[in-house]
Amino acid sequence: MRIPLVSEFETGEPWRLQNDRAGVAVPILVKGSLGERSYRLLSEVVDRVSLNDTGNINRLQVVNNSDDAVFIRKGSIVKGDTQTRALTLSIIVAPKSAMQAEIKCVYASKGIRSGASFEFSGRYTPTRVTSSLRESQSSTWEAVREHTVEAPKILMQAFSAGVFDRSVDASLQSKMGTDDLEGYLGAEESVVDEAMRNVPVDHVRQVGLAVIDLDGVVALELFDHPESWRALSKSVTRNYADILNKMAPDIFDINLGKVRQHVEDFLTRLRNMGGKVVYGEDQYRTYEVKEGRFVGEFTTSNDVLVHVLVTRQEKVESRPKPEPRSSPIYMINRIMNEDRRLAPQQLHREDIVNESLVPAQMSGQDNAALKVDYLTKKRGYETLLALRESGKAFNELQRVTGMSTATVTKALREAEGLGLVQRSYRSSDASTVYELTVDGKRLDPRKFKATIED
After folding, report:
1. Of the candidates 122, 101, 126, 125, the residue with the CA atom closest to the CA atom of residue 46
2. Are β-strands 431-436 and 275-281 bridged in parallel, bridged antiparallel, or unpaired?
3. How many Cα atoms sit within 13 Å of 208 on the Cβ side?
4. Which range in 64-68, 321-325, 438-442 is most confidently predicted, on average pLDDT?
């Protein structure tokens, strides 16, 4: 079934936190008059819906004691005395009825117990985690870990530009890399609320929001009615803080007029997307959507659209297999382990545990293999070699290396992801500067020149 977008929509004025940010929020407005809603959201009737642990790690008992059908959004985080979990898809629960919802764990350090009660936390999974919820539990764990490592870096970069009070730095640092997603979101809440207070989410005709970065649409969500959007808009948009606060390379100048047209074109494209039923109860259906890099869902009542959520999946590069001792990868492992100040447990997690209890961790060997793979590519070699002398702004790095804008952008993204390069703020000309981290300084790219791949 195709997404039944019956209403006509238009875009509102695009919004950026500051001119140096790569993320843009675009409100989606509905045209024409609308009738009454046929349902309520969980946040509106939370005292009349009970949530309980079934004893099955992937199932949640939902009892709707209200007189209204209740919509529960994908990524809703529920917490209690057992493992904190999140719904893997949106559902509508009929009035005075009970059903079981599919869930994934987003907190590794608690067990499960049949009959234990849950409560809705009022929070939702961020985009990276939301995109993983229909995959394996280990994929969700990895997404949680990546978000709680990468999002604080982005927010702390915003601190250096004077957006936030530096006093919150310690609370973010303490939660970096945690396996407790809901705990992390709570720690960053005051920071994010400060950053996002002006995001356009309360237009009288607003039913949704599109979030854009330098690669296009990251996420698009809309309801059939402004009252539904208004009921969760601030809670949901909080999870786009890492996207909207990410710094844009100095060389980029974002055309907001074209951003608006891009979202309108995506809405047209949305009408041609189709999905298969993954949940059905009475007249309510949820369909799963997969098209290219986009995944998501849409929910209907009597075949009329209630809600649609589509997010972009980020590409994950495959990790190289361990190499023999004669290879450059073995050499890099030796280099990385020369610093004996690193305790063994900082390089490896030795425990063998069930993947439903502990998120996957990258071993020191895998991480080193990815670093040498980066160094043996021309773009990686040229980038690290140029930064060995001193930190450089994007345009300076492009001039020194002679690489194209796209190649420099890709090289820097890879290096930041591997922990070899970090961003800093140069006060003399108010520019963002890329410089080597401690790990980046320990590697000499000249040792790998013989293995460079074009």
Report:
1. 122
2. unpaired
3. 25
4. 64-68
Task: Judge residue 69's burial from the number of C-beta atoms within 10 Å of its C-beta, 0-12 exposed, 13-18 middle, 19 or more buried.
Answer: buried
- Closest listed residue to residue 217, CA positions, set 265, 273, 148: 265
Going by C-beta distance under 8 Å and a sequence separation of 6 or more, which residues neighbour residue 261? none
Look at the alpha carbons of 104, 316, 251, 256 in this order and tell me if their dihedral is positive or negative.
negative
Question: CB under 8 Å to 222, separation ≥6 — which residues?
Answer: 9, 28, 207, 208, 209, 229, 307, 308
How far apart are the C-alpha atoms of 197 and 202, rounded to whole Å? 11
pLDDT digits (tens, 9 = 90+) for 405-446: 888 888 898 888 888 998 876 666 656 788 998 888 888 776
pLDDT tens digits, 352-365:
233 333 333 344 44
Pair 156, 172: CB distance under 8 Å: yes
**How many Cβ atoms sit within 10 Å of the Cβ of residue 117?**
13
Q: How confident is the model at residue 114 (pLDDT cuts 50, 70, 90)?
A: low
Strand pairing class (275-281; 284-291) = antiparallel
Instruction: Report percent pLDDT > 70 for the chain.
Output: 78
Domain(s) of CATH 1.10.10.10: residues in the chain: 328-341+360-451
Q: What is the CB neighbour count within 10 angstroms for residue 166?
A: 10
* 28 contacts 210 by C-beta, under 8 angstroms: yes
Residue length of the chain: 454
User: Residue 80: its pLDDT value, please?
Assistant: 85
CA distances from 30 to 6, 207, 208, 229 (A): 11, 6, 9, 11
pTM: 0.69
* Tens-place pLDDT, residues 194-217: 777 778 888 999 999 999 998 899
Q: In CATH, which of 1.10.10.10, 3.40.50.410, 3.40.50.300, 3.90.76.10 is domain 328-341+360-451? A: 1.10.10.10
